[in-house]
Specification:
Layout (H helix, E strand, L loop, with lengths): L13 H15 L9 H8 L1 H45 L4 H4 L5
C-alpha cells in the first residue's frame, strides 16, 4: 500500500528539500521514499495529445499545399485557354480593342 503526500515549495533549493523530506520519511515511516514531480506526470499524460496535434498540423499544411497546387493548375489552364482564344481571334482578323475587351 502506498502512502502519498504532496509538497509544494520553492525550486531554488530543490536538492536540500528532497534530502530533508527523505530523511523525515525514513525517520517516521517504514515505506521507502520515492518521489515524482507533478510536471513530469502531466507531460506523460499529454504526450499523446501533443503528438496528435503535430500530426494534424502536418496534414493541415499538406492539404493547404495541395489546394494551392490545384489553384495554380486552374489558373494555368485558364491562361492557356485564353491564349488559344486570343490566337484564334487574331487569325480571324479581330482588332486589338476587341481582343482585350471585357465583354465576351
Amino acid at each position: 500500500m502506498d502512502e502519498l503526500f504532496f509538497y509544494k515549495g520553492e525550486t531554488r533549493e530543490l536538492p536540500k528539500t528532497i534530502a530533508f523530506l527523505e530523511s523525515s520519511v525514513k525517520k517516521y515511516s517504514p515505506y521507502p521514499f520515492e518521489y515524482e514531480f507533478l510536471e513530469d506526470q502531466f507531460n506523460q499524460l499529454y504526450s499523446s495529445e501533443r503528438k496528435l496535434g503535430e500530426i494534424f498540423g502536418f496534414f493541415t499544411i499538406l492539404s493547404i499545399l495541395i489546394s494551392s497546387l490545384g489553384l495554380f493548375g486552374l489558373a494555368a489552364f485558364m491562361s492557356d485557354q485564353r491564349t488559344k482564344e486570343i490566337g484564334i481571334r487574331k487569325v480571324l482578323g479581330a482588332s486589338v480593342e476587341v481582343l482585350f475587351s471585357s465583354d465576351q
